[in-house]
Design goal:
The structure is a single chain. This protein is mainly beta and about 600 residues long. It has a domain of about 200 residues. It is built from 3 helices and 19 strands. The longest helix has about 35 residues. The chain is elongated and about 105 Å long.
């Protein structure tokens, strides 16, 4: 009996403990919620327990939140301009938003109902007074689960900004026929990333004052769109307007583009495979300065550019990058003002031939990535290219496996600074004559010929490398390379020549007498194991430089010749010690290295 009584008392104590814990949790939650917004007043219950109602205030409006139904009800008054997600730390739990009574919106409601990621429906919008509102930017932005909106009673006569108004929302159906848009100047991103929106009727839209339409339909799910009533006379920015949208049969013949200055990415990612794209002759681009990414990633097989006025364009970066076009006629292009052609034709897998002989590139400074990863490109006419102002050519011809030759004899590289990976992964180039290149200003040469698996010879005579700071992996993975004349190379500023010749196992000789190689492993896993000649000079070696470390026999040529060395014999360790003291004591000498019998070099390799 005593045991039963004790157990009963214990049970009561446990229940009391649970009740106190619940009360403590409620108080703590109340403090947290009250602290989440300046306008909140009182809170009852705890949403994590699924009990009761929370209450508070937004502007002049009282609100209550039902934790069970996840419904936020806002009563009559004027709302503040503060977004709900900034007022309420738990706003992402709201599934239903109900306006009960006359609700007045302030002038600026940008982001007011944005980022309510659980919101499924809004009721009572017909009770909302928006007559004083001028900014509705991102009003329903990122409401991922919101599928419909009734805006039939929205008074938008004073609204000037509707940018990103429905962006990233889950809207599937939208009736905007009652919206007054005559005052709107910014519609940028208005339907951006509305993936579930298939049809949209904008025939009643008044766009006479709109200046910015950038990203307006980008990445939307809209398939049919009639823009014949669009007044675009004042639009200056249409960048990415239709980018990666699903719109088919886009008719822009009625567009007035006399004020247009930016078309960046306007048609990016559009089109159907095999289709032909022709820009209407009424489409005036005479004031356009930016055409970067204009047709990037488009699926069109052919793009007719005869009506494109490029006379004032300065930026053509990535203009046709990743596109599927199989031919391009640029003979009508006026590129006299263009400064940036970076990536202009890059990552095109269908383009086999390009004639750029008529292109005026006299003001271009950036040609980086210009033809990179054009995997089918086998003919390239660059004879008319003016490169006198170009400072950046890094990755210019990288990964073009169909190219078997390149004539760059007319290239003026006197201002060139960056050559990184310029010819990298050109796996069918056998020889390159670059002796005409002026490299006085070049600072970066790393990865220049890396992975050129068929490259046998490259003429770099006359190259000035006084300002070069990095040559890492410059000839790495060139397994057919026998010799490259670097005798004219002077590298007083060289900081990194790491793995410069790694895996070049046919390399028979190299002149490093003017190389600052103290801080690099320049010859790691490099050189023909059957015979390798290297000339060293007044620079210190580091032990990990790789010089001689994979060879059993090392002998100075001395008064002999490469095929008949007569100098002193060394081990790799002894050679390291010889060049591991002050530069003044390091001898300028040629060394022959081999593992089996003495090598017989086919020629003197230019090492003197």
């Amino acid at each position: 009996m005593k045991f039963k009584k004790i157990r009963g008392h214990f049970s009561k104590l446990v229940k009391l403990g649970i009740m106190f814990a619940l009360l403590a949790s409620i108080v703590e939650s109340a403090a947290t919620v009250q602290g989440s917004a300046k306008t909140l007043e009182t809170v009852v219950s705890n949403p994590s327990l699924g009990l009761g109602i929370w209450t508070g205030k937004d502007g002049d409006c009282n609100w209550n939140y039902d934790v069970v139904t996840k419904t936020l009800t806002i009563e009559n008054g004027q709302l503040s301009s503060i977004p709900l997600t900034k007022e309420l730390s738990w706003a992402n739990e709201i599934e239903y938003l109900n306006f009960d009574g006359q609700i007045e919106l302030p002038a600026n409601v940008a982001n007011k109902f944005a980022n309510l990621t659980s919101l499924k429906a809004i009721s009572g919008l017909n009770k909302m007074d928006t007559s004083s509102t001028n900014n509705m930017a991102s009003l329903f932005d990122n409401d991922l689960n919101l599928t419909s909106l009734d805006l039939s009673h929205f008074d938008t006569k004073n609204v000037t900004n509707m940018s990103n108004m429905f962006a990233y929302s889950g809207i599937t159906n939208l009736d905007l026929s009652h919206l007054d848009t005559k005052s709107v100047t910014d519609m940028s991103g208005m339907f951006f990333q509305t993936r579930k929106l298939n049809n949209l009727d904008l025939s009643h839209f008044d766009t006479r004052n709109v200046i910015n339409m950038s990203n307006m339909f980008a990445y939307s799910g809209i398939t049919n769109l009639d823009l014949s009533h669009f007044d675009t006379r004042n639009v200056t920015n249409m960048s990415n307007m239709f980018a990666s949208s699903r719109i088919t049969n886009l008719d822009l013949s009625h567009f007035d583009t006399n004020s247009l200055t930016s078309m960046r990415g306007m048609f990016q990612g559009t089109g159907t495979s095999g289709e032909k794209f022709t820009l209407s002759s009424h489409f005036n681009t005479s004031k356009v300065t930016d055409m970067s990414e204009l047709f990037a990633a488009t699926k069109y097989a052919q793009i007719v550019l005869n009506n494109l006025d490029t006379s004032h364009v300065t930026n053509m970066r990535d203009m046709f990058a990743h596109s599927r076009v199989n031919s391009l006629d640029l003979s009508h292009f006026d590129t006299s003002h263009v400064t940036n052609m970076s990536g202009m034709f890059s990552y095109n897998t269908n383009l086999t031939s390009l004639d750029l002989n008529h292109l005026d590139t006299s003001n271009v400074t950036d040609m980086s990535y210009m033809f990179t990863n054009d995997t089918a490109l086998n003919h390239l006419n660059l004879s008319g290219l003016d490169t006198s102002k170009v400072t950046d050519m890094h990755y210019m011809f990288e990964a073009d496996p169909a190219l078997t030759s390149l004539d760059l004899s007319h290239f003026d590289t006197s201002r060139l600074i960056n050559m990184q990976a310029m010819f990298r992964k050109d796996t069918n180039l056998v020889d390159l004559d670059l002796h005409n290149f002026k490299t006085n200003q070049v600072q970066i040469m790393d990865d220049l010929f890396e992975y050129d698996s068929k490259l046998e010879s490259v003429n770099l005579r006359g190259w000035n490398t006084q300002k070069v700071t990095t040559m890492s992996s410059m000839f790495r993975h060139c397994p057919q390379l026998v010799y490259v004349d670097l005798s004219g190379f002077h590298t007083p500023k060289l900081k990194d020549s790491t793995l410069m010749f790694q895996y070049d196992y046919k390399l028979a000789g190299i002149d490093l007498s003017h190389f600052n190689i103290h801080n690099s492993n320049i010859l790691d896993h490099a050189g023909n194991p059957n015979g390798f000649a290297v000339k060293l000079g007044h620079y210190r070696l580091r032990k990990s430089s790789g010089v001689g470390q994979s060879f059993k026999h090392i002998q100075a040529v001395g008064k002999g010749k490469l095929n008949h060395p007569q100098g002193k014999k060394y081990t790799a360790e002894q050679l390291f010690r010889l060049y591991n003291h002050s530069a003044k004591k390091s001898p300028v000498a040629i060394y022959v290295m081999y593992n089996g019998k003495k090598p017989s070099f086919a020629k003197q390799l230019g090492i003197k």
